[in-house]
Fold:
Amino acid sequence: MGAGHGRADEGAHGTPSEAGDGHAGTGPAAGAASADGARGGLRARVRTRDNWAVRHAVLTVTDMAGQQVARAAADEEGVVRTAEPLPPGPYTVIATAVGYAPAAATALVTATGRADVGTLVLARQGGVELPPPGTWSLDPVHSSVTAIAQHLGISSIRGRFLGFGGRVEIAEDIEKSRVTAVIEAASIDSGNDMRDGHLRSADFLDVARFPQITYASTGLTPVGSDRWTVHGDLTMRGVVRQVDLDLTYLGTGQDPWGGVRAAYRATAELRREDFAMHYNQVVAAGIAAIGTTLRVELDIQTVQGDLPQQTA
Structure:
């Protein structure tokens, strides 16, 4: 209790399908990548906006005259490689996949006959189109609220809130839209019963006196076609502070139960002391057991209108 979307020239970051060095996998797959790189050709990674591999993507390469010179399909990690070296010069690279809008980039092949295009990010077909105005209900079954704290200055401890709900009111003027959410403080789950009991105590969330954490937006500032800063008031432990969320819209689509869903990812940073959580234990000079800053990561699905009865 931290998003962003990629561009064709960005590396993958923190992807759910691979370790976080921004390159596609290790072991045999990585060996194949090195072998392909030695032979030449183009290499690209194809990802969704929230960094999942698009395994059925196809990469088409054309020269400046518009002639197709190569075509290849992505592997299980969303990595696409063309096998043969290409003459030096600029090329247009287009990634396509069923259900996604195409993404294009320019690649400059060097004298080696190789080029690494980087990451091509595919949006769902029509995904840049904003959700229609009206009420959207947060689906807790397909959403997550995660808080991350540094531990001993060397690693992170993650906790999830299992009980929460909320609504998004999308206005005709998108900047007048509103977001409200309620989190059950006692639903914190860090995977350790003793630690969870301490987190629920007066040292931290003090759930006996303050059973709910609430958020109510006060405005939106656009920072891109699918990104906003959401300004709002967070109430926790009886303290109200303005907290901004960095929000990325991931797209809208039909669900299997006849409904329409919209997905978002949002991040924020909080200082524990701003909410009267002063507990800490110094384990060495300058090193605290628990960091003073918390990162919040929200992965949210909303359903148009009321929630459907079936949400498997």
